[in-house]
Amino acid sequence: MPGDGNTAVRSTTRSEIADYRQIDPCPFQRNLNTVLIRFLLSLILLAILAPLRAQDEPVHMRPEFPLIFPLAQNGNNVTVKFPVLINPTTVLKPGMVLRVVYVLTSVNVDGSTDLVIAHKGNLEQSYARDPSAGEEGTKLPPEVAHEIEGYRRTVWQVPHNFVLAMAQMPTDTMHLIYSPTEKNQNQNLHDERFSFFDGLFVGMPNGKVTVLAVEKESKADKAGIKAGDEIVSVGGASTQNDLAIFSAAYSAAKTTAKENEVASYPMTLRSEGKAETWTANILLPTKIKNGLMNGF
What we know:
- By secondary structure, the protein is α+β, with helices and mostly antiparallel strands.
- Helix content is 38%, strand content 23%.
- The protein has helices at 2-21, 27-30, 32-55, 65-68, 115-119, 123-128, 142-152, 159-168, 219-222, 243-259, 288-294; strands spanning 61-62, 71-74, 77-80, 84-87, 90-92, 97-103, 132-133, 138-139, 174-179, 190-193, 200-203, 210-215, 230-234, 237-238, 264-270, 278-283.
- The strands form five sheets. A five-stranded antiparallel beta sheet has the order 1-12-11-4-5, with no helix packed on it.
């Protein structure tokens, strides 16, 4: 019957509507607090892990460090094309034999892979890897000593190995084993850590103290220093076209700036292809007391 048919249709529609109304119109809104909490926790975790991840990566420079490092083949050995400064006390010169670069993987009791801590001697002894540091004869932990001995026995004979390693290893914990001379290499090995001057990698490609590369976002980069710039003086002291003198002037300038509690130290440079010089002011870390006084 037409009436019954219409009734049936209305009954079905009401039932469907009733069922539809039981469905949550916004399930996301019900779990909004949980979603927001998880999102905030993810951001916090990312903020914690990002700096740790950055420490495990190579330093990014302009140009990139592995590509600008002046490696050269010398018979069956690898050396450098011209003098370079790899840390405040170490100048690599042509004729020196580069054997291997490495990053220590053995972990100390405190969770650190820093050889200065592992060695338990002074800084100079730690970087020299003297197996019996300190007057009391404190030695490296056995696992650390064993790992280092393995590196000391390794010799890379082609520059390509160094380029690949430098491109992958974290630069701030990378070490170089080298010999000052080709003769009696095994009896005269040096182990040095890479360390840059506020983001500057410096060498003497043309007989002058020259910036080879600048770490991105470093103090030197923010001061406007670029690869190819000649470093004429630091803190008013001439570099005298000598890497060791530059290093001493750099150290003295920073020390003086800290003692005088000034915000920066000056570095006089000559841009590539230019006759005139210019001054870059490289910022020092803000002291806590100054930060508290001036930051609010």
